[in-house]
Amino acid sequence: MSFSLLDIIALACFLISWMGYTAFARRKAKTTNCIARCLHQHRIHWMFEVMSREIKVGEAALLANLERNIAFFASSTLLVLAGVLTLFAQVEKLEAVIASIPYAETPNHALIQLKLGVLASIFVLAFFQFTWSMRQYGFLNVMIGAAPLGEVDKNDNLKNYAKQMAVVQDQAAHSYNYGLRSYYFSMAAICWFFHPLLFILASLFVVYTLFIREFKSKAVRAITFGQELLATERKARS
User: Fold this and answer.
1) 31, 35, 44, 53: most buried, per Cβ within 10 A?
2) Residue 142 covered by a domain
3) 234 torsion bin: left (phi>0), alpha (psi -120 to 50), beta (else)
4) 220 contacts 214 by C-beta, under 8 angstroms
5) Per residue in 183-221, pLDDT tens?
6) How far apart are CA 73 and CA 71, in angstroms?
7) Average pLDDT score over the chain
8) pLDDT tens for each residue of 100-157
9) Domain containing 183: what range?
10) Quick count: other Cβ atoms within 10 Å of Cβ 10?
11) Does residue 224 belong to any structural domain of this protein?
12) CB neighbours (10 Å) of residue 91?
């Protein structure tokens, strides 16, 4: 099995980009306003409100909508994975297609199989993340069902319970985000079939896109401002 140095560098760049950005985003979110950090505060406010509502039909509907979105991606991931696995039996046809594309790298049978294996692994990881997210939302439903009625601001036990519900929801959202991130990086992995240089550029572009959307987008600014308004309103109530 022969691999060019450029292919090895491209694969290393891809893995470093993915794992490096994940570690960077997790660390930066602890000190910088971003989607993950501000939505966590929104979830805490949400769970505080849940504790003060006798009828929780609205919460059930909102959570069901979130679970439907995740279920869609989980089922779609299985279909995509089935398609990728099918390509293992059609490697020769795939090589012919790649060879017909201008400026594409000359296909290598063993390398094509490796690329398909990497792509399949990405979607397997995405499936595990989506299904774990669904299970955690199920745990949250149980916690909401068990939540007693009371004034959170005057009861430390209820306040801590609301925060724990927010933590479970936060973890479910993180798993969903990791699954979506797998889809982003799968787009970069597809570029490897054409040329390793394109693979490197696509990996860096995905990192740039994720950073802009999670830390610098208009949505982040709006969510941050909204979280500050909620915090001010809660202080005024207490």
Assistant:
1) 44
2) yes
3) alpha
4) yes
5) 999 999 999 999 999 999 999 999 999 999 999 999 999
6) 5
7) 91
8) 888 778 888 888 999 999 999 999 999 999 999 999 999 999 999 888 887 777 788 8
9) 35-232
10) 23
11) yes
12) 15
Interior angle at CA 72, CA 200 and CA 182, nearest 5: 20
Nearest-angstrom CA–CA distance, 46 and 173: 14
Say if 109 falls within a structural domain.
yes
Exposed / middle / buried, residue 105 (Cβ in 10 Å: 0-12, 13-18, 19+): buried
Question: Is 146 part of any domain?
Answer: yes
Judge contact between 168 and 143, C-beta under 8 A: yes
Closest CA to 171 of 138, 124, 218: 138
pLDDT recorded at residue 2: 66
Average pLDDT of the residues in 148-174: 88
What is the distance between the alpha carbons of residues 227 and 42, in angstroms, rounded to a whole number?
6
| pTM for this prediction | 0.90
The CA-CA-CA angle for residues 2, 118, 178, to 5°, reads 150
